Hints:
By secondary structure, the chain is an alpha/beta fold. Helices cover 39% and strands 24% of the residues. Strands 6, 7, 8, 9, 10, 11, 12, 13 and 14 form a nine-stranded parallel sheet that branches. Helix 12 packs across helix 15 (409-419) and helix 14 packs antiparallel against helix 15.
Amino acid sequence: MTRLNAVRGPILHFIANPSQCAEDVESSYQYFSDGMLVLDKGRIAACGEAGSLLAKYQLEGIELEIESYPDKLIMPGFIDTHTHYPQTDVIGSYGAQLLDWLQTYTFPMELRFADAALANEVANFFCDELLRNGTTSAMVFATVHPTSVDAIFEAANARNMRLMAGKVMMDRHAPAELCDTAETSYEQSRELILKWHDKDRLSYAITPRFAPTSTEQQLEAAGKLFAEFEGVYLQSHVAENLDEVAWVKELFPWSRSYLGVYDHYGLLGERAIYAHCIYLDQQDHQRMAETGTAMSFCPTSNLFLGSGLFDMNAAQAAGIRVGMATDVGGGTSFSMLQTLNEAYKVLQLNGQSLSPFQAFYQATLGSAESLRMDDKVGNFEVGKEADFIVIDLAATPLIKRRMEHANNLKEQLFALMMLGDDRNIEAAYVMGECRYHR
Ligand code: GUN
Ligand code: ZN
């Protein structure tokens, strides 16, 4: 007799962008108050009402081994579209905005990643911390050292996580030991692509840090790699901070805008994703939309570093895909729930809003779409990889109490994103296997 594993409990997942279902938000998600996810070889075999699925599998003579999570909430794992594992140990460092923060805290820490043993230790901690926060996939910066890339890919692969990462390309305006050259960055990135890209659930991301730390030759080399390797990603930062924007104007006086620098070197495209995107104009937005370039919204980082307020409405109006991101260690939390909390507040300050449905869509399917991996993860469509989490809606006395006054799913989700954090994550499953249990 065939046996399959299943999990049973309240289930929520998104099938569309709520902002594109204006009349009928309910058509953007499926919610089963007594739902069941049936798993087959790490993939979703079925998702629906437990009662009807139980009857169906019984009729087919398939036995189900069921784990039950009544009173919890089962959702797709969160996807963090921009984060830096080498900055784990500088998270929450006092008193600076972007450019000073990089010099004072970030570069000194990243220098230490020349030590492969340190890189391995931090990479393992980082992946455990992702899972402990319910994040099952991430797009990650390593450092300039190729061994730092090996470390994060090895740690992710040991947990069978879907993860993208890349070696930082940086050949100026940083400590000499943290700089490569246009040639070595090209060669080392190329070797890492051949070694890691498409291995199991891993993908490579070409990673020029940001325009100010790359010469024109290096940006050209990044563009060459991006054109040469189909399916490989490109990640960078753009228009995060006003001093940074002014510096880019000095360094690249010929460019109409900061984004224009990347555009000039062929660094926009379907698999390119840029963090922050705060100080962009309409022409930049149009260019991102035309090229299929995605954005990462990093609210805890943007508030912590005093960078500015992301314009979600403008991004949506332009038709740009937006993923959620922690941007650890400029960001102050590994928790996607905390990230949604601060995203809501950033948008409030910008005269905008973030409905709870929009928020949880952004953290799951929306982030998967921004990374062009929504054919693999992001929701519970049959055949997708079974990365999911179990959320405890009564994890603290306050949250438990608050939930008793939530009258419907929307109110529950909003209270969860405003009050929740790692304490709410009961379990995280990767390809159908429990990789974290509280
Ligand atoms: N811009 C260039 N490098 C970084 C970084 O490490 N963090 C953030 N937040 N912005 C950057
Ligand atoms: Zn970043």
